[in-house]
Predict the structure.
Amino acid sequence: MTSRFSEAYVEVLAGLASKKLSSDKTWQTLITRARKLAGQHGFEVSEASLVEDLRKYLEKAEAKGANEAVSLLAGAGEELSGTGAGAMVCDDLARRLGALKTLRHTYLLKRFGSHKVWCLSLPPSFTDWPHEALKGGLGGATAKLADKGDRFTLEQRKHLGNASQEGLKWVHKAMSVSSSPKKKANFELVARWFADRNSKDADVLAVAEKLNAGLKKLSSKLKSGRLIYTDSVSERGTTANQSTEAFVWGDPLDVVYIEEEFFGSRNTLTGLTNWARIVVHELTHRELKTEDHAYEHQGINPNKLTAAKAVENADSWAWFCADCAGALTEGVIKNAMDR
Ligand SMILES: [Zn+2]
């Protein structure tokens, strides 16, 4: 059954709360910090160093001959003494192991300033969230625990962090434009993406006010330290997200799912500009309940789309932000308007 990260996170909290976790002194120190890191409403930025220290601890143990599976089993309070072939990982142990494995693959993507977001990058061998994937035969669980692979490579995590930071920059520029819409250049920017031939000046000023209020929400989300980028781990074995760039799934936590096409090349925009567009697009879905009336390649000129739909349309918001930040060439803007 497919499930969201928010559901898996509840299991992480339960796993960390368990009294059966290792009583070893070093592990207890890590576990105490892990409990602070994994708060009721998501990961706490102030405790972010725990994930780095956990990785360092596992790396050191590996240098001494204990691979990550051995270490994580020990951390979960399972020493495996006397367990032979055919041993099983029960739900309860899977939950403890899953909690540690989740933190092992959690990264804080912080570039500079107030921008901070998380990335959960579980190994590709997981086709479900850890508390599910680690259940069953000990052999399979051990192989998964020992897998140090990351769904998002170091380079991709850098790209994600940059995209998110760039998205925040765009949002700030767009906030500045929409806060003084009576300035001619600003008025024209708002009108380009949100006014149709029936719009009056007052309508453009009203939409600017709406944009400004919405953009403030996006900005605070990108700065909140609560935003988590991951992929839809429980759907990995399916074709559900094959041609998907990213999506949101109504998680109680602030989760944006990043999928295969995010780093693809099928979009009008490319590289950082496209990734930032996707981030802003998805955040408008999450924070402002925007729709996908039309994507840019389908035509988002408000004269075609209508002004009423443009203000509800995720890609219109994202392209407006890109335009305000000077991220679009004249040719790209003309092309978008002509579609
Ligand atoms: Zn969308």
